[in-house]
């Protein structure tokens, strides 16, 4: 299961196929288990990358057996024309980049030496699939079964040759692709900011910690979404949100250490306002002998309010 990918910032680790909203919210995921790992019919027919896309698409919510209109955005690893046709058959829209060796000999001109913003298209009237090759910083090929080229948008780019910002024409579905793509990268960025740094020799520990960090990130995104509809709700960043979660867990499940420490630890456990309020401080017997917080010898007495062990003469 552990992979080595040379071009990644972290070369060794586990791979997870993720399905995200553009905000970074994780909808679904699957841990990569090797070429002979978890297989289904879609992966055997369309290959692993395309099969993962179909597997996620099958989990889209339905109403009266009719799929609610959705549009999927994916990069070229998960794309082929046969996959686009299959999604169109299931009435699922998609806008995806596609590799030049997967366009099945479609006649698209080479526009590498044309001006920026120039594009050529090819349309399959039978399956209603559009292929578009667009020249930006480099030539990119996209395909869709859901959106069209029009209306043509204007996009700003910086030209090093002219040393100024220029206007570049941009087809409509490419603009939508740029706006909605990148949710998985956004999730990885949020998780990397404040990643849990506890280490363990157990093989499953990185997977567990990653799922925990992603869950907190999802909860923070839900809080931000909820805040839009609730008045006087404070805006907090991810770090402050994680602190609030930790405080809530410690308040609910935290336990006072059973063994008292020195005077400094007593002052940390019991504030000065509580120690000197002259209310409710009674000495009582405890079930087992523990160490006195001052002299460190064992005693069976404690303060019922402060919950610290003390000899009667120190009380």
Explain the overall architecture.
The protein is α+β, with helices and mostly antiparallel strands. It has 3 domains: 2-193, no CATH class; 205-253, no CATH class; 256-315, no CATH class. 30% of the residues lie in helices and 25% in strands. It is built from 9 helices and 15 strands. It has helices at residues 41-46, 48-57, 81-89, 172-180, 183-193, 205-227, 238-253, 263-269, 272-275, and strands at 2-4, 12-14, 16-20, 26-31, 62-63, 66-67, 71-74, 93-97, 119-124, 129-135, 139-144, 153-159, 164-170, 283-291, 298-303. A 5-stranded mixed sheet has the order 7-8-11-10-9. The longest helix has 23 residues, at 205-227. The radius of gyration is 30 Å and the shape is elongated. This is Transposase is4.
Spatial separation of the terminal alpha carbons: 60 Å
**Overall SS class:** alpha+beta
- Percent of residues in helices comes to 25-40%
Number of domains: 3
> SSE order, as H and E?
EEEEHHEEEHEEEEEEHHHHHHEE
Task: Report the biggest beta sheet as strand number plus sense, adding barrel if it closes.
Answer: 5 strands, mixed
> What's the pLDDT, averaged over the residues?
84
Question: Low-confidence runs (pLDDT<50, min 5 residues)?
Answer: none
Helix segment tally: 9
